[in-house]
Design goal:
single chain, alpha/beta, Rossmann fold, Helicase, Ruva Protein, domain 3, 4 domains
Length: 460
């Protein structure tokens, strides 16, 4: 990686040392930013992660070693070159153990500094490439489990879609396996050796989602210290899975439409069109046709996405697949937790088969994982299962007597299920989301949408 344009954070309490490093880095066409101690450096890193850090060890407030430990605790991987006058072997070894990439004693040789900076930036580029590769490999999940007619029909349609470059729209309730099918479509396609990039459209704000998808140019907004490639650019030749597409903000819907039409876009703050050879797979548990009718989703984008549409069946409509899926999760979680659990008792399986599974396969995975952890023997029994959540639907009479149309009754049912989950978890949104098989961010969005108030806490 050439140093040109790379942001380098200089952390040193000595102003003269900072200025000297700034001059050397600008000669390499880097973009230096300054911090006088570890506290300032940590704040700068949280605002925008630099490509490299040059770090002094002896500083007030927070020293260099303390900063390295803080970064390590937070899981921040930042290539660091330690530059200090206290250049003992012991100090260098300790800094390396805390995550430093290299070590330079003061006074440093400018040529040596250039070599080390180049190597550190090359390492960062390699780490980012490997991370993208790991994400792609992690996305290559096992084949879809199930032999029911509903599953076979869905797999057959998915394989036909995979053979083309057409956009695919996956519909279905939360937890039905839309991401698993997206993975499979990519794996079955000619793009299988290229990146598979996942973007959750509801997990980020509009500004962050725009930058995540399209990237941004240096200086495009406050904190944009360097150019960043977006997911579309990084996925060139591969596939992009846009999860929760129904929640994409309207301004980004227009930009996505252009990507689908001519496979080009501009980074945020950019003017040059960028071409990306990508295949879009989108998914939502929303009724997009109704969203179009209500003006919440662009009609032209809906038809561009809806080239091949695949609606995934909920688990309750393919119960014959449940034993196979449950045993798959049992084997997986038993291996992960190193538990000697080998089977599911008949009575426990009967309970699993009778449960309505509002959270679908994701809920089943959570139930089996919990059972494996709590199981005291070699076989999961009824006492190990936690199926008392808001599983049972409201009585048929309460639904049919509502006077609502189909969509109104569905909304009322969702409202009732969410309220039940919140009551049973004492208003704990995280636990309620887990019980419903939803992401917490999506549950919060539903609470706002349905105007559900948190239950009052009981007086002791």
């Amino acid at each position: 990686m050439h140093p040109a344009g790379a942001t380098v954070l200089i952390v040193d309490d000595n102003a003269s040392a900072r200025r000297l490093l700034e001059v050397r880095l600008r000669a390499l066409r880097c973009e230096p930013i300054m911090a006088a101690d570890g506290k300032e450096a940590l704040d700068a890193i949280h605002r925008d992660l630099p490509a490299l850090m040059l770090l002094d060890l002896e500083m007030p407030r927070m020293g260099g070693m303390e900063l390295l430990r803080a970064l390590r605790r937070e899981g921040i991987d930042l290539p660091t070159i330690v530059i200090t006058a206290h250049g003992s072997i012991e100090t260098a070894v300790e800094a390396m153990k805390e995550g430093a990439y290299d070590f330079l004693p003061k006074p440093f040789d400018p040529n040596h500094l250039e070599i080390v900076v180049r190597k550190a930036l090359e390492r960062r580029q390699l780490v980012e490439a490997n991370r993208l590769l790991r994400d792609t490999l992690a996305a290559r999940t096992p084949d879809i489990l199930g032999e029911s007619p509903a599953t076979r029909r869905a797999v057959e349609t998915a394989k036909k879609a995979a053979a083309s470059n057409s956009t695919v729209l996956l519909l279905g309730e939360s937890g039905t396996g839309k991401e698993v099918f997206a993975n499979a479509i990519h794996r079955w396609s000619v793009r299988k050796d290229k990146p598979f990039v996942i973007v959750n459209c509801v997990a980020l704000s509009e500004h962050l989602l725009e930058s995540e998808l399209f990237g941004h140019e240096k200086g495009a907004f406050t904190g944009a210290h360097q150019t960043k490639k977006g997911k579309f650019e990084l996925a060139h030749g591969g596939s992009v899975f846009l999860d929760e597409i129904g929640d994409m903000p309207a301004p980004l819907q227009a930009k996505l439409l252009r990507v689908l039409q001519d496979h080009s876009f501009e980074r945020v703050g950019g003017t040059q069109p960028i071409h990306a050879d990508i295949r879009i797979i989108a998914a939502t548990n929303r009724d997009l046709a109704r969203a179009v009718k209500d003006g919440r989703f662009r009609e032209d984008l809906y038809y561009r996405l809806n080239v091949v549409c695949l609606t995934l069946p909920p688990l309750r409509e393919r119960r014959e697949d449940l034993p196979l899926i449950a045993r798959h999760f049992l084997v997986t979680y038993a291996a992960e937790t190193k538990r000697a659990v080998r089977g599911i008792a008949t009575k426990a399986m009967d309970l699993l088969m009778a449960h309505p599974w509002p959270g679908n396969v994701r809920e089943l995975a959570n139930v089996i994982e919990r059972a494996v952890v709590l199981c005291g023997g070699h076989e999961i029994g009824p006492e190990d299962l936690a199926l008392s959540g808001p599983a049972a639907p409201p009585p048929a009479s309460s639904v049919s007597a509502s006077g609502r149309d189909f969509h109104g009754q569905v909304e009322a049912f969702k409202h009732a299920v969410i309220e039940a989950a919140l009551r049973e978890t004492g208003g704990n949104q995280t636990k309620a989301a887990e019980r419903l098989g939803l992401q917490r961010t999506y549950l919060v969005k539903l609470l706002r949408e349905f105007k559900i108030r948190m239950p009052e806490k009981e007086e002791p």
